[in-house]
């Protein structure tokens, strides 16, 4: 089986490049991945996987940060014009773009093993100069303001080839395989409603991966991670009262001042002795005109902590400051949670096994175990769910040469490193489900 995995993963590189570039050209952000998801779902169907889609795969009431109905509709139409499958897109109506495919193996009963691949792009304006390979080679983003600047395009490409190889090998495997395609990983939105819908139910083993990120050199692999930054994402709406700024300023309730007071004071929250915390107000929108007391303002913000408790501390303090600032300026305030992810830690025994597999592959020159993850990844929601139910899981980072850091306009990977991602996934499945 090993030789076949090595051979097939290499042979499928041109296909992976084709898929990756097609997705790179048409990036889609959270809950709007109609083209991406329909393409991937269609392929899984062809490979013999049973699909779970729509409300069965994404719990509607647990969705956070969903775009407006107009934006959803507009993007559904856009995706159809770009070649998305109309029947599948219909099931995803309302932004239900997450789904999974199940495959029963032919080798009798055994564990249920899940693999997660994320699909979404970022709100980044891609560089359009000849210094940037995707532009030079004609596959830079056609959607201005959106870009696959975190490599999730390559994750989908790898996921489809992993699914294909496992389908070819299924009679020599036991148990069952679930391939999860997650929308809205950015902003920590996708995992929670998928877990609520049951994507991790009865899953014994779960595997997630990222290309690049903390693995910014080829031949490197981190087989596990810990200290994912737990996070909460908020949109905060301050509602004041408009008034003439010259004639009757005393009649107004200034929402911009409430938002600004909240912002500076949230950034002054006492740091916790228990470990690293973060807070960022990344965007302020507010006011109507020069001579109008601003009746509304919005903050787009997030808190983070190196463990779930530290993030909860930041989130609790932030809420207190926001409410106090609103009271100070006599405004009303609504805090809307638009994303959330816990921290987490890979299962040690699983990491040890994957390290052995990686050590056996000559292309991996440096193999690490559990490393500290420097960002947030809402796969931690799925992993902790599986672990809570007695299962195991890990999150791997596969090395590649990065043209620039994640979320940068020049971000690009070395496409041939997708082979390594496929290999490590398939060999890990073979290790756990091999007869
Ligand atoms: Zn990412």
Name the overall outline: globular
Radius of gyration: 23 Å
Assembly form of the protein = single chain
In percent, how much strand structure appears in the residues? 15-25%
CATH architecture annotation name of the largest domain = 3-Layer(aba) Sandwich
- CATH homology superfamily name of the largest domain: Zn peptidases
Average pLDDT = 96
CATH class of the largest domain: Alpha Beta
| Ligand inventory | zinc ion
Proportion of residues in helical segments: 25-40%
Largest sheet: 8 strands, mixed
Distance between the ends: 11 Å
The beta-strand count equals: 12
Structural class: alpha/beta
Ranges where pLDDT stays below 50 over 5 or more residues in a row are none
From the 3D structure, determine the CATH topology of the largest domain. Answer: Aminopeptidase
Give the strand line-up of the largest sheet.
1-2-4-3-5-12-6-11
Offer a few descriptive terms:
single chain; alpha/beta; eight-stranded mixed β-sheet; 13 helices; 21% strand
Protein model, in words:
With 435 residues, the chain is of the alpha/beta class. The chain folds into two domains: 2-204 and 379-395 and 402-433, Aminopeptidase; 230-341, Alpha-Beta Plaits, CATH 3.30.70.360. 36% of the residues lie in helices and 21% in strands. It has helices spanning 2-11, 13-25, 34-46, 69-81, 86-91, 133-136, 152-169, 191-197, 255-266, 308-328, 348-359, 379-388, 418-433, and strands spanning 50-52, 99-104, 112-118, 176-182, 205-211, 220-226, 230-239, 277-286, 296-305, 332-341, 366-372, 392-398. It is globular. The model has no long low-confidence stretch (mean pLDDT 96). It binds zinc ion. Zinc ion (ZN) is lined by residues 150, 152, 210.
């Amino acid at each position: 089986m090993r030789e076949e995995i090595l051979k097939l993963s290499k042979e499928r590189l041109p296909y992976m490049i084709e898929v990756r570039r097609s997705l790179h050209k048409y990036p889609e952000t959270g809950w709007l991945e109609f083209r991406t998801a329909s393409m991937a779902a269609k392929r899984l169907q062809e490979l013999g996987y049973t699909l779970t889609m729509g409300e069965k795969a994404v719990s509607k009431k647990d969705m956070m940060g969903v775009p407006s109905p107009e934006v959803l509709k507009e993007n559904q139409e856009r995706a159809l014009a770009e070649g998305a499958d109309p029947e599948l897109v219909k099931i995803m109506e309302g932004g239900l773009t997450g789904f999974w495919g199940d495959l029963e193996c032919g080798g009798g009963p055994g564990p249920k093993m899940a693999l997660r691949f994320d699909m979404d792009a970022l709100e980044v304006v891609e560089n359009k100069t000849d210094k940037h390979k995707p532009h030079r080679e004609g596959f830079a983003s056609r959607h201005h303001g959106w870009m696959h600047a975190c490599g999730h395009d390559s994750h989908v490409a790898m996921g489809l080839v992993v699914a294909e190889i496992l389908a070819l090998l299924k009679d020599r495997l036991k148990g069952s395989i679930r391939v999860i395609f997650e929308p809205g990983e950015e902003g920590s939105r996708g995992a929670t409603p998928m877990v609520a819908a049951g994507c991790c139910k009865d899953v014994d083993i779960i595997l997630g991966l990222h290309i690049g990120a903390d693995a910014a050199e080829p031949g490197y692999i981190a087989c596990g991670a810990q200290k994912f930054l737990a996070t909460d994402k908020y949109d905060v709406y301050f509602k004041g009262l408009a008034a003439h700024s010259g004639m009757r300023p005393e009649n107004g309730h200034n929402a911009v001042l409430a938002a600004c007071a909240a912002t500076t004071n949230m950034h002054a929250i006492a740091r916790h002795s228990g470990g690293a915390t973060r807070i960022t107000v990344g965007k302020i929108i507010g006011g109507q005109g020069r001579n109008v007391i601003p009746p509304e303002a919005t903050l787009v913000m997030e808190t983070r902590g190196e463990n779930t408790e530290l993030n909860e501390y930041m989130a609790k303090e932030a809420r207190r400051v926001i409410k106090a600032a609103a009271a100070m300026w006599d405004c009303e305030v609504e805090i809307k949670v638009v994303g959330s992810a816990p921290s987490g830690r890979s299962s040690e025994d699983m990491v040890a096994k994957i390290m052995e597999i990686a050590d056996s592959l000559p292309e991996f020159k440096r193999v690490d175990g559990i490393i500290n993850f420097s960002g947030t990844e809402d796969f931690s929601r799925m992993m902790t769910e599986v672990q809570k139910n007695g299962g195991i899981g890990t999150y791997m980072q596969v090395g590649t040469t990065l043209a620039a850091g994640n979320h940068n306009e020049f971000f690009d990977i070395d496409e041939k490193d997708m082979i390594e991602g496929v290999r490590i996934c398939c060999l890990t499945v073979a290790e756990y489900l091999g007869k």
